[in-house]
Amino acid sequence: MPGVAPLSPKSTSAEHGTVASFFAGIGGFDLGFEAAGFRTVFQSEIDPYCNVILEQEWPHIARNKDIKELSVDDIPRADIWCAGFPCQDVSLARARPRDGLRGARSGLFYDFAALLGDARPGTVILENVPGLLNSHEGRDFGIVIQTLVELGYGVAWRILNSKHFGVPQSRRRVYIVGCYNDPGRAAQILFEPERGEGHLEKGRKSESSTLSPFMERAEPSGRLRNHRSHKQLIGSSAEIFVPKLSFCISATTGRHTGTDWSRTYVAYHDRVRRLVPAEVEGLQGFPDGWTVPKGTSVGEDLDSRRYHALGNAVSVPVITWLAERVKATATLSNLYPGAIAQSSAPDSALKALSA
């Protein structure tokens, strides 16, 4: 369900920028943007375990834990704001009725939007589950789009699947891009030209120092030959049968309840084993050991927290692609247009938020 919300376009000159990350989790947005040459200047995340990871990877940047206690004055100026706001109240994975944006968690979008209205950075990128599109018969999604448009953003949205970005996981997420006073650019970021330049080897690159997390060559039989792994488990010429991509990794991946247990295991011929957190890191595009706090030992309790954090994270290669698209379409005045001109957009959305 891709789309574009119309607004008058505006164009300007190119440079890299800075990023502020909200609902930062374990830093998937930050890591993806930095891989494309951007610099993270701010993070907001309430989860204590995730904050440990953020602190060890970005020890010198400004950080805030609770978005409800955050003022725009606390946020360093950033060209791009990223937010994977909570999905629990819009997700179809829950058996109970969905609260949508009225819920305590997904409703934090309103707190983010109020800050966005005060700062109005040049680009905003939101991420959530596809259930956002039909939550309350689409009304919640409409509120998100209308809010961004009334704040002066041209908006485009698209569902992206991680399996198309070099990781063997089927993970569909809706990405919403807003560009201040520039709907044409929002669409350019999300919808690349049908013909363009690419580099296959870049998409295949793996930083794993153990078993290669991703197979790189398929044979007609449907078997994948592991021809470039670092530590072989069963021999350099052994074949592993992979009938399909990994299920979407969720925050409940570490549990053994309901139907989720089947998603935490992989089968090699007649043997079955559980996916370990290091493999889930690979399925999400994170470096090996990213979710292990320094000075801790790997154990069952730590595994549960790692599974949960990774299940809530964005897939890093998807974010790197988005960052490259932002970079490819950026110009000087649309990176931070608030520094050039004040918004003339109506403030009815912000008034509704504060009502």
From TrEMBL:
Q: What is its EC number?
A: 2.1.1.37
Gene Ontology biological process: DNA restriction-modification system; methylation
Q: What class of enzyme is it?
A: transferase
Q: Which ranges are annotated Basic and acidic residues under compositional bias?
A: 197-207
Q: What is any Pfam family matched here?
A: DNA_methylase
Q: What family is this protein classified in?
A: Belongs to the class I-like SAM-binding methyltransferase superfamily. C5-methyltransferase family.
What protein does this entry describe? DNA (cytosine-5-)-methyltransferase
**What gene is this protein a product of?**
dcm
